[in-house]
User: What shape does this take?
Amino acid sequence: MKKVSVSFTLNGNTVTAEVPVTWTLLKTLREYFELTGAKEGCGVGECGACTVIMDGQAINSCLCPIPEVEGRSVTTIEGLADEDGALHPLQDAFLKNNGVQCGFCTSGMIMSSKALLDQNPDPTEDDIRTTIAGNFCRCTGYVQIVESVEMAAKEGK
Ligand code: FES
Ligand code: FES
Assistant: This one.
């Protein structure tokens, strides 16, 4: 299989990956960098479990061919906590509000929500629900997730 060398910023560090040219960003994160926070649910852009932030936008990493990541800046759930291990306010709020059950959707939920709060620090409930409309959760019923994002927004004020 033909390989490609791709350099980009990953959670604040400059990295280079040499991977098969057909790989996606999700596969590269999980199998080359061993960052398994982003999950593969559907693999076709429908569930949001693979959501990461690229250049400020939440994207489905399962749909992103790795050559398109050259020169970009990618943030994953592993890049949210402080260097000293202190959780990001969203991570903290999800824990405090029982926004996590099985956890499969959680990384994607938090990354979609982070992209929202970075652009709109004071979102309405509708804003939050619209943002996570592409993130499917089979466990929580969404109420605790919305409350978690609201709590993180309040703490960020
Ligand atoms: S795994 Fe990417 S959207 Fe479902
Ligand atoms: S917590 Fe299980 S899918 Fe959301």
